[in-house]
C-alpha cells in the first residue's frame, strides 16, 4: 500500500505536457557538457520501483511523466546529484514509525541496486571529492539524501544505518509537523514546537557528528533559525525559492537568505511551479486528479497493466482540463537571479525537484538543463561562477560537514 501511495504522490506532482524550446547556442551546450553538474534534489528513486520502468531507457515527460533517466542525463548534461529517500508523513505512532522505517530502507536499497546493476554508468558517492572523478570517467554521480526524517522514529541513532548506506544529506520535515521539527506547510498553519523539537536538536547533533548535511527545505523559518544557531556545519536548502519573488511558506525571505550565507550555507533553487508564482485554481482538473490518485491508492501493488491504464487516464485529464496558468522558465530564473543578487554565486545552487513536482513551461525535464547555463551566461555570470552554482557550492557544504566530523 505504501509503495502505491508513493507512486500516487509522485504522479500527483507531475505536470502536463507542453512543448519545450530547449535549443541553446552550440558553444553554450559544449560548455554546459564540460561542467560538473549536480542537482541536489532528485525524487527519481520513486520511478525505480515502477513496474516496467528502467533508468536505462529513455522515457518522455510527454508520455509517462517521468523526468530523469540515463539517456536524458547524458543528453541534458546532468552528471548526477542527490537521489532522495522520500517518505510521506504518516502517524506519529510506533506502527507508523515502523512502516516508514521499512519503506525508507527499501527505497534506499532501490538506489543502491540501481548503482550495483550498472557500475559502468552509476557510481555511489560518499565524499565531496568523489564527484569530479566519477564525472570525468563519464559516469553518473549518486549521492543519497533523506527527505523527511520521519522514518527515524524516535531513535536518532538510526541515522547511522542510513549513513552507512550512503546518505549524506537529511531534511527534518515535509508537508506536516513530525517528531523532529515544524513544517512550513502543516495543515494546521500553527507551529508545534516553534522550530526544532528537543528530539530534533538531538538529530542535528547526530548529523553533525556523522558528517550529514542538515537540509532545511520544507521546514519552517524557525527551524532554519535553530539550525543556523546550533549546527556546527553549514546548512543546505536542497530545493527552495525566494519569498521576495513569491510569498509562499516554502520560500525564504532575504533576511534568512543572508543569514544562511553568513554561516556558509547554500540555497538550491527549486522549479516546483506552485512555489514560483500564484497559480489560478483549476477545480475540474483537481477533482479529476483527486479521483485518479484515490484509485491508485486503492491498489496494494501496482502492475504494469494498471500503471498503463492510469497513465492513459492522466493523459485524458490533461486533454480535457489542461493547465492554462503555469510557472515558466522565466519565473524560475527570476527566483534564481534574485537569490544571486542577494547572496552572490557562492551561496546559490540548483535543486529542481525532478520527478517530485519540479518542471515548468520551457523546462519540462532534464533535457532543458543547458537553458539554465545559457541564462546565467546572458545574465553576466562567469564560467567559474556557473561552475560553483552547478556543483561547487553544494560540494563545499558537504566537504565542510566531512571536515567537522573529522575534528
Description:
With 407 residues, the protein is an alpha/beta fold. It has one domain (2-279, 326-406): Metal-dependent hydrolases (TIM Barrel, Alpha-Beta Barrel). 45% of the residues lie in helices and 12% in strands. It is built from 16 helices and ten strands. Strands 1, 2, 3, 4, 5 and 6 form a six-stranded parallel β-sheet that branches. Strands 8-7-9-10 form a four-stranded parallel β-sheet. The longest helix has 24 residues, at 94-117. The termini are far apart. The model is unreliable at 1-21 (pLDDT under 50).
What are the key terms here?
45% helix, 407 residues, metallodipeptidase activity, alpha/beta, Pept_M19, single chain, 16 helices, four-stranded parallel beta sheet, signal, TIM Barrel, six-stranded parallel beta sheet
Report the count of strand segments: 10
What is the 3D shape?
A: globular
Distance between the termini: 44 Å
- Report the sheet with the most strands, covering strand number, pairing sense and barrel closure: 6 strands, parallel
Task: Give helix % range.
Answer: 40-55%
Question: Would you list the SSEs in sequence order as H and E?
Answer: HHEHHEHEHEHEHEHEEHEHHHHEHH
Structural domain count: 1
Topology overview:
Elements: H1 2-13, H2 26-34, E1 38-42, H3 45-48, H4 70-76, E2 80-86, H5 94-117, E3 122-124, H6 131-136, E4 140-147, H7 159-165, E5 167-171, H8 198-210, E6 213-215, H9 221-230, E7 236-242, E8 251-252, H10 254-262, E9 266-269, H11 273-276, H12 283-297, H13 304-320, H14 329-343, E10 348-350, H15 370-378, H16 383-406
Parallel strand pairs: 1-2, 2-4, 3-4, 4-5, 5-6, 7-8, 7-9, 9-10
Pfam families: Peptidase_M19 (PF01244)
Keywords: Signal
InterPro entries: Metal_Hydrolase, Pept_M19
Amino acid at each position: 500500500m505504501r509503495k502505491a501511495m508513493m507512486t500516487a504522490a509522485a504522479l500527483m506532482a507531475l505536470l502536463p505536457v507542453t512543448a519545450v524550446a530547449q535549443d541553446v547556442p552550440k558553444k553554450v551546450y559544449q560548455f554546459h557538457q564540460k561542467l560538473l553538474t549536480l542537482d541536489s534534489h532528485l525524487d527519481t528513486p520513486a520511478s525505480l520501483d515502477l513496474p516496467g520502468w528502467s533508468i536505462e531507457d529513455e522515457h518522455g515527460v510527454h508520455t509517462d511523466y517521468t523526468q530523469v533517466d540515463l539517456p536524458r542525463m547524458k543528453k541534458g548534461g546532468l552528471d548526477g546529484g542527490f537521489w532522495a529517500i522520500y517518505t510521506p508523513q504518516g502517524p506519529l505512532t510506533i506502527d507508523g514509525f515502523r512502516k516508514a522505517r521499512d519503506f525508507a530502507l527499501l527505497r534506499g536499497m532501490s538506489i543502491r541496486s540501481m548503482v550495483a546493476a550498472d557500475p559502468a554508468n552509476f557510481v555511489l558517492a560518499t565524499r565531496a571529492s568523489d564527484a569530479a572523478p566519477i564525472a570525468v570517467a563519464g559516469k553518473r554521480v549518486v549521492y543519497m539524501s533523506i527527505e523527511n526524517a520521519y522514518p527515524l522514529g524516535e531513535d536518532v541513532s538510526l541515522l547511522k544505518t542510513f549513513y552507512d548506506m550512503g546518505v549524506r544529506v537529511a531534511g527534518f520535515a515535509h508537508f506536516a509537523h513530525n517528531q523532529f521539527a515544524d513544517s512550513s506547510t502543516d495543515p494546521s498553519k500553527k507551529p508545534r514546537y516553534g522550530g526544532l523539537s528537543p528530539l530534533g536538536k538531538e538529530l542535528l547533533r547526530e548529523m553533525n557528528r556523522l558528517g550529514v548535511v542538515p537540509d532545511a527545505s520544507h521546514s519552517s523559518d524557525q527551524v532554519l533559525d535553530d539550525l543556523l544557531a546550533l549546527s556546527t556545519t553549514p546548512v543546505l536548502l536542497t530545493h527552495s525559492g525566494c519569498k521576495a519573488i513569491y510569498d509562499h511558506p516554502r520560500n525564504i525571505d532575504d533576511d534568512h537568505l543572508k543569514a544562511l550565507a553568513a554561516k556558509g550555507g547554500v540555497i538550491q533553487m527549486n522549479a516546483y511551479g506552485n512555489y514560483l508564482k500564484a497559480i489560478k485554481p483549476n477545480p475540474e482538473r483537481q477533482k479529476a486528479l483527486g479521483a485518479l490518485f484515490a484509485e491508485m491508492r486503492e491498489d496494494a501493488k501496482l502492475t504494469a497493466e494498471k500503471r498503463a491504464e492510469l497513465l492513459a487516464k492522466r493523459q485524458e485529464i490533461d486533454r480535457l482540463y489542461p493547465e492554462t496558468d503555469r510557472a515558466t522558465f522565466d519565473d524560475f530564473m527570476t527566483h534564481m537571479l534574485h537569490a544571486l543578487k542577494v547572496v552572490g554565486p557562492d551561496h546559490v545552487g540548483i535543486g529542481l525537484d525532478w520527478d517530485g513536482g519540479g518542471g515548468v513551461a520551457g523546462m519540462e525535464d532534464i533535457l532543458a538543463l543547458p537553458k539554465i547555463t545559457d541564462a546565467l551566461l546572458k545574465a553576466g555570470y562567469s564560467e567559474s561562477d556557473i561552475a560553483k552554482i552547478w556543483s561547487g557550492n553544494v560540494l563545499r557544504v558537504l566537504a565542510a560537514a566531512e571536515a567537522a566530523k573529522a575534528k
